Predict the structure.
Amino acid sequence: MFARKTYKSDSFSNRAGKATSKSKRSFRDHATTAKRTEAVKSKKPESPPVGSTLTSAIITLCIGPEQRLFAAHEDVLSASPFFSAALRGQFLESHSKRINLPEEIPEIFSSVLEYLYKGDYYPRLLHNKRRNNWELEDAAENNGGRGVIESTVHHLATGEPLLKDTMLYCAAERYGLDELKRLALRKQGLQSGIQCSTILASARYAYSNTPDNDSKLRSHYLALIIRSRSTFKRSGTMQMEMEGGGKLFFDLFVAMCNHMDDISAITKSPR
């Protein structure tokens, strides 16, 4: 999913160098260990415990305009408030136990299901104990050497490639999966070598599919553009996007003003 190649132009890089240590554990394993040191909380987990017996009814899900079929256990889907409501009859076809989601993207929904069952989606987020940081599992090593995994998914409605983690974040917003939102945002922060046009298209998608009070994904894109401003100001795509306007660019203007004010305050402060 996360492309390793770096484009020669019109791209940015904000990722640290790849570690070579094999001493790793998954995001889910790390979270489980941390929870053992805390008091037991009453909040219901978003995904079933590993190794649990899944005996609930099988639900068929019809996804996308091509009506691709998926199957999942009712108990697993019920971890999502959206599907819990659907299974109570709002969207469920009573005779066939079938949920239709014609607007959803099959590649994205597949990763949502993987998260609900496993607590993560491929490529997994791994903790490198030697370096004490988080990184994505090596696609070439864990994909049988069949090449890297693309970081984008083609979006039919726009005809553009969009960052998969952004689309997953927005899906998690729809389905009420806050931990998946956090995980998707964390993985997106590990990407590098993404074209400006893909970043801007993904930012537009984020603005169209998150509420106005979203303080995570939207802020991520604003900060990213500001940090990589030297690249974006040379981008023809950025110029066309700004000429087209939209709330993204008003927010960007406000964020850049705040950034300049912060710099001004630091330079004026007594040493």
Q: What stands out?
A: The chain has twelve helices and ten strands. The radius of gyration is 20 Å. The first strand starts at residue 11 and ends at 13.
